[in-house]
Design a protein that fits this description.
about 35% strand; single chain; 3 helices; alpha+beta; eight-stranded antiparallel β-sheet; Immunoglobulin-like
């Protein structure tokens, strides 16, 4: 007697490929719906026009002789930033520190650092995911940039005089 169709292994082999494609499609659609695109910038044209302004901010940081050293205390609760500049430049009362994730804009955070002494700023450390972040210190007409891996375990130095400046 001949076996039923569902007892034949080749039938299941033929059904396996289209069924796996359907299951893979359902998983792909559910991931596309539940997660965001992760666009870093919505208006690329406008950002392209502002590149000269951004470069001026980097040059202004060099002109002011700015150098920053960022440390995080052992419990990852506070950020301490030591900011050094030329004697002719007056340090601002507060500066913005942005944490921009290298690939996922949803992980980005920013904190306002307030000056607690002559050249030391402090704030509460935000909760951040592990990964590579671009740190950006912003104030007045200048900015300092540095890429680092979180969690921060050692000092992060912005505009290190031992390294060549671009």
């Amino acid at each position: 007697m001949k076996p039923s169709w569902y007892q034949e292994p080749f039938v299941w082999l033929l059904i396996l490929f289209p069924a796996s494609a359907v299951i893979g499609g359902i998983i792909t659609i559910s991931l596309a719906i539940s997660s965001s695109d992760g666009l870093v910038v919505d208006d690329y044209y406008k950002q392209g026009l502002e590149i000269n302004r951004v470069l001026k901010r980097d040059k202004a940081a060099l002109k002011h002789g700015l150098q920053a050293i960022l440390t995080v205390n052992a419990g990852n609760q506070f950020i301490h930033l030591t900011l050094n500049a030329n004697d002719s430049y007056k340090l601002p009362k507060a500066i913005m520190l942005q944490f921009s994730h290298s690939t996922r804009s949803g992980f980005d955070k920013q904190v306002m650092l307030k000056r607690i002494s002559d050249n030391i700023y402090q704030s509460i450390f935000p909760s951040l995911k592990e990964g590579i972040f671009i740190l950006q210190i912003i104030a007045d007409d200048w900015r300092l940039l540095k890429s680092t891996h979180l969690p921060i375990t050692e000092k992060v130095i912005f505009n290190d005089p031992a390294l060549p400046q671009v």
